[in-house]
Structures are given as C-alpha cells and as structure tokens.
Amino acid sequence: MKPVNLVLNILWVVFCGFWMALGYLVAALISFVLIVTIPFGIAALRLAGYALWPFGRTTAPKPTAGVGSAIGNVVWVIVAGWWLALEHLVLSIPLFVSIIGIPFGWANLKMIPISLMPLGTEIVPVEHAERARVDDRRW
C-alpha cells in the first residue's frame, strides 16, 4: 500500500469511514435475518470494508453478473440502498463545509452509485483496474 493511501484511509476512517461502515454493517445484519436476503448481507459486508478503507481500491463491473444481479439491485434500492445513499449524502455535507474535508466529500458522493447498486460489481485494487482498462484498449 502506498503511504499516501494509508494516510488518506486513516483520515477517512476518522472523518466518515467508521459511520459509513457501521451503516453497511446494520444493513448486513438486517439482511441476514431472512435466508432469501443473505446475498444482500454479503454485499453489504463487502461494501462495509470498502466504506471503511476505500483508498487504493475501486469498483469494477463483475463479468459474471447477470439478470439476477439487476433484479437484486432493484430490491436492494428499495430495501437498503436509498438509506445508505442518503447517509453518504448527509455525511458529505459537513465535509464540504470544511475546507479540508472537500476531497472526502467528493469521495463520499462517488460511493453513492455503488451503495444503490452493489450487486454485479466487485472491489478491486486500483492497479488491477488500470491494467484491465489498458488491456481493453488494446482490442
């Protein structure tokens, strides 16, 4: 891990990462209540780790995702996604008010799409995603 990413992740945890991860953990616990919603709980746990320590990682579309992911995302938005997106939005406002927190506010807003549609995406290291983009350009 790069030292800059380490510093950014530590500051992120202090300013908003802990609260975001806690929100995703609550969504995961609620999802684990029913057997049918266990995949949502797994996705919420994955996102909790990403919300807690995001710098140095990014999201990429999962090539094996299909129609089930799209249907699951619709259910997720109704049940938990819009609450988590609202949490990202609300936490970004005080970050934007402070001068130092503006980059973290933008990072919070960039997480809203994945909080709304987590199924069909995976969290990968930034280097891995950049390498995949370069390989796609060759074709």
Automatic annotation (TrEMBL):
InterPro entries: Inner_membrane_protein, UCP028777, YccF. Residues 7-57, 71-120 form the Inner membrane component domain. Pfam families: YccF. Keywords: Membrane, Transmembrane, Transmembrane helix. The keyword Transcription regulation does not apply. The keyword Transit peptide does not apply. The chain crosses the membrane at residues 7-26, 32-53, 65-85, 91-109. This is YccF domain-containing protein.
